[in-house]
Structures are given as structure tokens and as C-alpha cells.
Specification:
Strand order of the largest sheet: 1-2-3-5-6-8-7
Helix content: 25-40%
Order of helices and strands: EHEEEEHEHEEEHEHEHEEH
CATH class of the largest domain: Alpha Beta
Number of helices: 7
Distance between the termini: 44 Å
Length: 248
């Protein structure tokens, strides 16, 4: 497969979403707007020519929208290969290019979020271990920060204190989210409407700046749902899934 780097110059014409084919969809528009503002911060979006089915998105860790201390590292926002494209080495291609590019830019290594067992919307820990990543920090909700050091004496990244014990001091459901994930543009309003219709306490906090994201009370900022102060999930909710969660 050939690969294309998405830039300011071609982002309007390129397909960038893993699941949405309509470039005029509000979710795609939201994601593209977020990406366009990150390119000046060093973000790289490399994708396969098969629309949005294989891609890697990474950025210098100092500019990552996550509460991490990882100066000198490259932070991988997302490495995605769609189901039918798995098993062909595309993940290796994309990660390999990220490693090559990061070394060329003088980085200490890569870092990425994962968990002890595979979770939706997080990198596969077994794959990362196979590629040489090591666990360098873990939050109390089981979210892990993994690193691939280019030199054995490189300092390891860490979560900021605000993210080590994910918790909020508000009752009901509280959602922290960014525009990095395209699905949020559609489904956050859906959940807000559903909660209002059913009298469910719900508050959505849209992280719109890097500074806010880097001081959030959660390692995952793309989507982090809390209930009565406690972390619940990073998996996006639609109306049906949210009501099922509430019923439990």
C-alpha cells in the first residue's frame, strides 16, 4: 500500500476518518478543523491510500493534548488499521515511519496510551510490547503510558499529577472530551439531549485548548466519562449505550 501525508494543503480533499466516508459530515469537519490547527505544532497524519482505513497520527509530546511529562518524545495520538486490513504489515509500516521520522527529528523515543488488556480506542498492549515499548507509568484507573526509548539511558515519560488518580468533584455524569475524535461532534450532543430528556444529571466539558487538555483530571482526553466523581469509560456513547449504562 502507498501512503499519503495529510497537510494543510491537502486536508480538505483527503479522507481522514476510520469509519465515516462522507467528507461533509459534521464529524469529519470537526476532526479536520482540529487537525488543521495542530500542524503548526508538529502534528503528522500519515495514512494509507485506502481512504481512512490505515493511519498514524503523532505530535511532539510537549504539544500533546494529554497530561503527560514527556519532553523530547513523540506522542502517538492514534495508530489505526481497520479490521479487513489487519495482517498485512501496515501497522509496522506506519509505526516504522513514525520511528524513522522521530529519530531524524532528534527525539528520545515514542510514547502512547494503552492498558493492561486491550480496550476500545486504545493501542493494543501486546503489539506495543512486541515492538519494544515498556510501561513507564500507570494511572489508578488502569490506563498506562508506554514508551519506546531510542537510547537506554533516556528518561521515561510520566503522567502529570492531575491524571494519576482520575476523579472529579461533581455529582452525576461528567464528560471530558476534545475534538480530536470525530465521533464526538455527533454523539456528545446526542448524549446531552438524551440525558436532558430523561432527567439524568450530565455535564459535558469540551477541552478546546492544549493547556486545558494538559491539565485535565484524566490521562485520556479524547473521551473520559465520570459518574459521581469516579472514572467510568473512554468509549463513546450513543443514546442507547448511555441509557444502558445508566440502568446498570
Amino acid at each position: 500500500m502507498d501512503y499519503i501525508r495529510v497537510t494543510k494543503e491537502n486536508i480538505e480533499s483527503e479522507h481522514i476518518c476510520c469509519a465515516i466516508s462522507n467528507n461533509k459530515d459534521v464529524q469529519v469537519a470537526s476532526k479536520k478543523a482540529w487537525l488543521a490547527e495542530r500542524f503548526d505544532d508538529g502534528l503528522v497524519f500519515l495514512k494509507g491510500t485506502e481512504r481512512g482505513k490505515c493511519f498514524i497520527e503523532y505530535i511532539p509530546a510537549e504539544n500533546a493534548w494529554n497530561p503527560i511529562d514527556a519532553d523530547g518524545y513523540m506522542y502517538v495520538d492514534c495508530l489505526w488499521v481497520s479490521g479487513s486490513f489487519k495482517g498485512h504489515g501496515y501497522s509496522n509500516d506506519l509505526l516504522g515511519e513514525c520511528i524513522r521520522d522521530s529519530r531524524e527529528k532528534g527525539k528520545k523515543g515514542l510514547c502512547i496510551l494503552s492498558s493492561a488488556k486491550k480496550k476500545p480506542f486504545l493501542a493494543d498492549p501486546e503489539y506495543l510490547k512486541h515492538k519494544g515499548f515498556e510501561v513507564c507509568d500507570e494511572a489508578s484507573n488502569g490506563i498506562r503510558l508506554l514508551a519506546l526509548r531510542f537510547s537506554p539511558d533516556a528518561s521515561l515519560p510520566r503522567f502529570k499529577e492531575c491524571a494519576k488518580n482520575p476523579h472529579v468533584d461533581e455529582p452525576g455524569y461528567v464528560l471530558y472530551y476534545t475534538s480530536q475524535c470525530p465521533f464526538n461532534a455527533k454523539y456528545v450532543p446526542v448524549v446531552e439531549k438524551t440525558a436532558a430528556e430523561h432527567g439524568i444529571p450530565f455535564k459535558a466539558i469540551h477541552l478546546t485548548t492544549k493547556e486545558d487538555a494538559r491539565s485535565a483530571p484524566t490521562p485520556i482526553t479524547t473521551y473520559a466519562l465520570f459518574y459521581n466523581g469516579e472514572y467510568v469509560t473512554n468509549e463513546q456513547m450513543n443514546d442507547t449505550r448511555f441509557l444502558k449504562l445508566v440502568s446498570r
